[in-house]
């Protein structure tokens, strides 16, 4: 009888131990499968196209402040849906050892998700969970939409600058028409140190003054005729800004078939400091310039590589003339009206933390760069 009881006790202990091992094995297998799935997405996702220079993610949308969500609520959500996660509500971190600790380290290395930080599980996909009230980010309230394809503006293959009549000052006016077109999808964008706030709703903000400076410098300093559109596109509906500005871009091209360059001038936002968006050149503080090129990842855009090549040409000249002025060249999903012309770019001059005078000095420098590229120097 005693041997029989002892044998039963040993069997029960073995079964309990085996159950624990099976539970741990299942957890490890589930995590391993999840890691493998995420890793395969990274391996077989869209091939990145190398940019000319590494830059911070482009910020072309309005800054919004995200509310915080209590950690306890997120813990509860995860524990309810994924009980194997075993997250505690008492804090933001936990110590995991053994096999589970190793899996946690590998998991964080591949995905950036920390086992003790439940918000990190969703942060990459749910922007609302990614920071506190002091962390401004550039995400739109609703996705900005682009207009459906319309009849394309006829833009023949042509050099940047055709044969031109030159006046006494070497001015370049092909048939008396404009060579550079400038407009602003986000007219309200402004510079806080000069304008008092980041956006002037329903008005042409500080970025419009920068566009005017660019057009004036092209005309007066380099003899390149430029046309500058004043149409407001981002009011009353910010999310239809690009739908509206596409009509302006089409109008500029139709009224000025001689245009060789068309620029949508913006300013960046969401940076943590003013120093991140300015540089000292020739003894003066100037705003850095970011060139953005749309790709065909969201909409048909068969000539985007021509825009990219033009951006690279500008960037090379900018680095030669004003080292440090270029923040980078960035490829971005979306067309940004660049499908209308092979030399069309979105240009961000400084950020909302720059002063208007810093941005305008950069615009004068950009005018020289454009002139050098157009004249083939």
Give a description of the structure.
Helix 8 crosses helix 9. The protein contains nine helices and ten strands. The strands form three sheets. It has a six-stranded mixed β-sheet with strand order 4-3-5-10-8-9, sandwiched between helices. Strands 1-2 form a two-stranded antiparallel ribbon. The longest helix has 43 residues, at 2-44. It is of the alpha/beta class and 377 residues long. The N and C termini lie far apart (103 Å). Residues 41-74, 84-103, 105-112, 118-143 and 162-170 have low confidence and may be disordered. It has helices at residues 2-44, 71-81, 98-111, 119-123, 192-195, 206-222, 241-255, 304-321, 356-374, and strands at 63-64, 137-138, 180-183, 226-228, 261-268, 278-281, 284-287, 289-294, 326-332, 344-351. Helix content is 39%, strand content 13%.
Q: In a few lines, what is going on in this structure?
A:
The protein is of the alpha/beta class and 377 residues long. The chain has helices at 2-44, 71-81, 98-111, 119-123, 192-195, 206-222, 241-255, 304-321, 356-374, and strands at residues 63-64, 137-138, 180-183, 226-228, 261-268, 278-281, 284-287, 289-294, 326-332, 344-351. It has 2 domains: 16-45 and 66-135, no CATH class; 174-374, Aminopeptidase (3-Layer(aba) Sandwich), CATH 3.40.630.40.
Itemize the secondary structure elements and their pairings.
Blueprint: H1 2-44, E1 63-64, H2 71-81, H3 98-111, H4 119-123, E2 137-138, E3 180-183, H5 192-195, H6 206-222, E4 226-228, H7 241-255, E5 261-268, E6 278-281, E7 284-287, E8 289-294, H8 304-321, E9 326-332, E10 344-351, H9 356-374
Parallel strand pairs: 3-4, 3-5, 5-10, 8-9
Antiparallel strand pairs: 1-2, 6-7, 8-10
Helix pairs in contact: 1-3, 6-9, 8-9
């Amino acid at each position: 009888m005693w041997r029989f009881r002892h044998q039963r006790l040993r069997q029960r202990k073995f079964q309990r131990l085996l159950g624990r091992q099976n539970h741990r094995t299942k957890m490890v297998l589930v995590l391993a499968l999840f890691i493998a799935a995420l890793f395969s997405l990274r391996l077989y996702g869209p091939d990145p196209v190398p940019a000319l220079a590494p830059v911070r993610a482009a910020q072309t949308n309005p800054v919004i402040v995200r509310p915080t969500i209590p950690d306890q609520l997120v813990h509860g959500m995860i524990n309810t849906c994924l009980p194997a996660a075993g997250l505690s509500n008492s804090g933001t971190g936990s110590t995991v050892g053994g096999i589970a600790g190793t899996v946690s380290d590998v998991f964080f290395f591949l995905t950036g998700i920390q086992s003790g930080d439940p918000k990190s599980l969703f942060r990459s996909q749910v922007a609302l969970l990614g920071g506190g009230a002091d962390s401004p980010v550039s995400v739109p309230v609703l996705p900005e939409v682009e207009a459906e394809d319309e009849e394309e503006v006829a833009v023949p293959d042509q050099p940047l600058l055709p044969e031109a009549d030159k006046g006494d000052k070497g001015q370049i006016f092909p048939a008396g028409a404009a060579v550079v077109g400038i407009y602003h999808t986000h007219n309200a964008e402004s510079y806080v140190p000069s304008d008092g706030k980041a956006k002037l709703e329903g008005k042409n903000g500080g970025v419009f003054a920068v566009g005017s400076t660019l057009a004036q410098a092209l005309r007066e300093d380099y003899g390149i005729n430029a046309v500058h559109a004043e149409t407001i596109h981002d009011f009353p509906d910010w999310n239809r800004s690009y739908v509206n500005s596409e009509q302006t871009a089409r109008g500029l091209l139709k009224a000025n078939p001689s245009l060789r360059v068309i620029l949508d001038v913006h300013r960046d936002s969401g940076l943590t400091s003013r120093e991140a968006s300015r540089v000292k050149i020739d003894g003066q503080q100037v705003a850095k310039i970011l060139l953005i090129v749309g790709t065909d990842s969201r909409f048909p855009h068969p000539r985007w590589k021509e825009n990219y090549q033009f951006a690279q040409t500008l960037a090379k000249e900018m680095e030669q003339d004003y080292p440090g002025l270029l923040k980078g060249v960035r490829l971005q999903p979306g067309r940004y009206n660049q499908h209308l012309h092979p030399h069309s770019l979105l240009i961000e001059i400084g950020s909302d933390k720059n002063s208007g005078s810093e941005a305008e000095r950069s615009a004068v420098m950009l005018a020289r760069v454009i002139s050098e590229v157009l004249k083939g120097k």
